[in-house]
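During the second half of the funding period, the structural biology subgroup turned its attention to how the target accommodates small molecules. The most pressing case was guanosine-5'-triphosphate, which had performed well in the primary screen but for which no bound structure existed. We therefore specified the complex as follows and requested a full 3D prediction, including the ligand pose.
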Amino acid sequence: SERTLVLVKPDGVERGLVGEVIGRIERKGLKLVALELREVGEELAKQHYAEHDGKPFFGSLLEFITSGKVLAAVVEGPRAISAFRQLAGGTDPVDKAAPGSIRGDFGLEVQFNLVHGSDSPESAEREIKLWFPEV
Ligand code: GTP
Ligand code: MG
């Protein structure tokens, strides 16, 4: 079994899609290990998205992710990292995410793509420590 960090980003929380996302995670058979609605400060945002530091969209990404409450969750199950990335769909909600995925069903713009999921075991370990040091 494997763990991954999932976020419902400020656009998803603002649009009332928390239940939709949690429902899809549960129906897939993945388990919730930790769950918290929280404000994201500049420092946490920078550390979370450190791999994108220096890219042209880094500033607007930080502004976006700190713009409202985020639902953070640790999700567990067999191949949880890939399983959630599949539920989420590709990064661009129109060009990459298939209909039937969270981003494909509810998103339109690459920045406002509703959810985050860790992209590798190394990322998952780093991100879970960052968001839920006690878990
Ligand atoms: P995350 O799960 O949020 O990490 O998304 P991802 O792994 O599918 O994509 P990636 O890590 O490459 O990018 C992180 C986030 O930056 C994306 O989810 C988008 O919100 C945003 N982003 C990525 N590429 C672009 C871009 O070209 N323009 C803008 N404005 N935002 C982008
Ligand atoms: Mg990513």
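Two results from this model are relevant to the next phase. Residues 2-131 form a domain with the Alpha-Beta Plaits fold (CATH 3.30.70.141). Residues 119 surround magnesium ion (ligand 2) (CB under 6 Å).
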